[in-house]
Amino acid sequence: MNTKIVAFFALFIMTISANAQIDRSQPPVAGPEPEISIDKPEEFTLKNGLKVLVVENHVLPRVSYSLRIDNSPIATGKKAGVESLIGSMLGNGTTTISKDAFNEEIDFLGASLNIGISGGFGSSLTKYSDRILELMADAVINPLLTEEEFDKEKTKLIESLKSDAKSADAIAGRVGSALAYGTKHPYGEFVTEETINNVSFGDAVAFYEKNFNPNNAYLVVIGDVEFKDVKKKIKKYFKDWTKSVDVSTTVPKPSPNVQYTQINFVNVPDATQSNISLTNNVNLKMNDPDYHAALITNNILGGGGEGYLFKNLREEHGYTYGAYSRLGTDRYGASRFNATAKVRNAVTDSAVVEAIKEINRIKTEPVDPQLLKDAKAKYVGNFVMALERPQTIASYALNIKLNDLPEDFYTTYLQKINDVTVEDIQRVANKYFKTDNLRIVVVGNGADVLDNLEKTGIPIMYFDEYANATEKPVFDVKLPEGVNAKSVMNKYIDAIGGKDKVEALSSILLKYEASAMGSTIISEEKRMDGKLLQTIFMNGNAMMTVLTTQEVVTMNKNPLPENMVADMKALGGLFTELNLLNSDNSKITSIEEVEGKDAYKVQVSGEVVSLAYFYDVETGLKVKEVQTTSMQGQTQSQEVVLKDYKDFEGVKFPTTREGSQMGQLIVYKLLEAKLNSGVTDADFK
User: Fold this and answer.
1) Of 281, 350, 284, 294, nearest to 320 (Cα)?
2) Which of 380, 471, 518, 597 counts the highest number of beta carbons within 10 A?
3) Which tens digit of pLDDT belongs to each residue from 180-200?
4) Residues 6+ apart with CB under 8 A from 140
5) Strand positions, DSSP E, 81-136
6) C-alpha dist (Å) from residue 247 to 74, 363, 617
7) Which residues are paired to 53 by β-bridges?
8) Backbone angles phi and psi of 481, in degrees to 5
9) Rounded CA gap, 666 and 660, in Å?
10) Helix (H) or strand (E) holding 565
């Protein structure tokens, strides 16, 4: 059906790429070292405190405006998320221009304008720059804030949280930050449905009025402007932006690093991959003498395909599609070193061990001089290319102001990069990569990975998905005597009509219909022994076709990867359960509530595609399917609730299938069910 196929399609298309192989027997001759020239901005300050930096650049007839509200980070506690709610309402009309008219005019001008709670960005051709500046000022000073729009944004944010509830990536990000910084720290607190529901429209408006003001605001103008002219216009449009009370606060210190290296484990039962993060807090600022050496050190460890982590975990061992690291900076002294990877369940323990080995390697072994040279060259190239973007120049101008940097920080940038030595790499690695105090956050399926993680000898502590300490999860499900995965599936076969009825079938044709996004969607399934053809029609047009047989699995006639094919073959045939009864690749992992009734959860693990089927304890009917697809380091789950079974020629099928797609509930209703007709062998060729 649709919700199942889309999961395959969305992840599969990421695997299709074309790689041109270029034979270069001789490396290109290096050109001269680029000279970095960054224009120094002219400056002025309005009476309300807005600080303006202007860089004239008449090469192209374009102008950009970058607004930065530079407040100190603050924690919003029981109303976490208020900043997201009010931020999503900004930039959508003003008290004088409706939302639609505002957005239509920007589109008509071929311009861009985005406003958020931390500032905004606008750009346009020179001839429209005056109007874009006027619209930006109007959106900043007179935003259209209505309770109706607030309620819409609140609903959207809550739906987004619900869709991420079982996402291992979302859980890993939330728990990692909460444990590293502490839940009361601005960088460690997180948004929940409860905190969102604590926020009223009045709270959101009050947050805007208190925090979105010119006291600590910077406006950077870059492009085809004359300083005197743009100064006059900025004074005209922004003079009514009222100065407010100072909202500067003291940023608390983050939680201290752990006293000894440990694994912090979060159990996500449906996870087919483990999300691994090896992290420790650091105090590194841009004006620190170690800054440039730290950039190159991190680049060598995990900056990309040439990094130690990538070469080990992907190229040497094939544990993952990518492994990377980041060494952050923060002017408030609260940042992290973080090495991350998403790996198969079976190699979670090995990936942890190998990642630690590579971090220790850069601390104890001098880096190869050629590798250091290559890392510098890559960084230099990226730096020079970035200078072509106006946003970069704006960012650099602000960085100098906000981070207490010397005026020549960027003009001498490349020289400082090239001055980094082999000894610097080892010194910086030992200073910032704390292998004796690493917090190793692992989010994954405990039933599959914990036994081997325990064998690493690294102490393990357990947390729930909101960073609360908990006990080690128990995986032994207490089942009634004689109940196992096969008995549950046999009961399902009996519940839908019995073994005799099911085995007498030669084919099944099912058609379901749903309405979504203004379109009519038809999900069609054709089944025969060992074969399945699934087709999605949108407004009468075939959008996607998946063919599954014992020999081949294709999508839109394109063969799928071999490891994916092996997992999907179980889906072919009249009923998936008939295939699973003939294999040992299923087990009951829990008893969970579905639609208010207890259901046995039968897990079928695969390398790429894993299934979780839920069978009503009382009736035996299948009431939910969860299909999880993991490819290219991405994991996506699709959940379908099955309802309202009806008898068709002695065999029962659900007449309602409910699933969420992009945060929208889609309800499929059964249009047609044909048994032993409407399907031929020719359909599967």
Assistant:
1) 350
2) 380
3) 999 999 999 999 999 999 999
4) 67, 115, 120, 212, 238, 241
5) 112-116, 119-125
6) 9, 42, 57
7) 43, 220
8) -55, 130
9) 6
10) helix 562-568
Q: How far is CA 36 from CA 224, 401, 409, in A?
A: 21, 19, 11
**CA trace torsion 136, 138, 140, 146 (10° rounding):** -120
pLDDT digits (tens, 9 = 90+) for 123-182: 999 999 999 999 999 999 999 999 999 999 999 999 888 878 878 889 999 999 999 999
Q: What are the structure tokens assigned to 590, written together?
A: 């829990």
| CA 581 – CA 490 distance, rounded (Å) | 8
Strand partners, 530: none
CB 390 within 8 A of CB 225: no
The pLDDT value given to residue 178: 96
- Take residue 199 and report the two structure tokens written for it: 């926020």
pLDDT at 462: 97
The pLDDT, as a whole number, for residue 276 is: 97
Residues 6+ apart with CB under 8 A from 474: none
Q: What are phi and psi of 637, to 5 degrees?
A: -115, 140
Pairing, β 262-267 against β 439-444: parallel
Q: Evaluate whether 110 touches 124 at the Cβ level (below 8 Å).
A: yes
pLDDT at 629: 80
The DSSP 8-state label assigned to residue 200 in this structure reads -
Q: What is the pLDDT of residue 95?
A: 94
DSSP 346: G
- Residue 525 DSSP code: E
pLDDT above 90 as % of the chain: 68
Low-confidence ranges of the chain (pLDDT < 70): 1-37, 39, 247-248, 270, 390, 631-635, 661-664
| Rounded (to 5) percent helix, strand, coil in the chain | 35, 30, 35
